Amino acid sequence: MSGHDAFREFDQSLREVLRNATEDKERIEGVRPLLQKLLSVPGLLPPAYRRPHADKYAQYLLYKPEDEAFSVIAFVWGPGQQSPVHDHLVWGLVGMYEGAIVEKRFRRVDDGSDASRAVLEEIETVTASVGDISFVYPRQADIHQVFNPFDEVAVSIHVYGTDIGKQKRHIYDLETGSIREVITRHDNTRAIYA
Fold first, then answer.
1. Whole-angstrom Cα distance, residue 48 to residue 66?
2. What is the distance between the alpha carbons of residues 103 and 189, in angstroms, rounded to a whole number?
3. What is the CATH number of the domain that holds 173?
């Protein structure tokens, strides 16, 4: 199956899930097998996009429908590269396509009354390898940090309930407790599978 065919099928199936699901947990459970199938498509990420940047991970938009109801992103993690601690403010799934990453998950333990500060508690650290899928959704499971402590490049495929390259989100400083608003734009301006 070609990448274009895979995304055509993925789009149709995901829209069916979105029509029937009323809560984020239902969306995640409905999308999980669709992402699992996408992770099995050989050559989904063309070779030109399989290299991280020298100083940070790469973020490539694979697919986004015109209505931006969701987006599919490839993150390419070089050895030693990591994300800041961040949230998403939308449901999403993270599937491992190649290599492995470590994900630290956090929860907010303050009352949330100060929009510029937060107290976070680390709740779990997991290692994800090829075929593994995790998820995020607002409030209960939305804050994490991803890093690649291994010697090989890792590729993760993410599905979000919006164009995450336009989504306002937050970065959390664990030492100071400060919160900063951010938009993490894609490294490519046009989806690979447009």
1. 25
2. 27
3. 2.60.120.10
Angle at 55 between CA 158 and CA 167, to 5 degrees: 35
Name which of 165, 131, 128 is nearest 144 in CA terms. Answer: 128
Query: Does residue 189 fall inside a structural domain?
Result: no
User: Domain total for the chain?
Assistant: 1
Asked whether residue 144 is marked as a ligand-binding residue, the answer is: yes
Q: In 77-174, which residue ranges form alpha helices assigned H by DSSP?
A: none
Whether 192 is in a domain gets the answer: no
Mind listing the pLDDT tens digit for each residue in 152-166?
999 999 999 999 999
Stated pTM of the model:
0.94
Nearest residue to 15 via CA among 66, 90, 74:
66
At 26-52, the pLDDT tens digits run 999 999 999 999 999 999 999 999 999
Please give the single-letter amino acid code of residue 114.
D
Backbone angles phi, psi at 173, to 5 degrees: -95, 110
Domain enclosing residue 160, as ranges: 3-182
Candidates 30, 43, 42, 47; CA nearest to 135 is 30
Numbers of helices and strands, H then E, in the chain: 2, 11
Q: How far apart are CA 171 and CA 149, in angstroms?
A: 21
Query: Is residue 57 assigned to a domain?
Result: yes
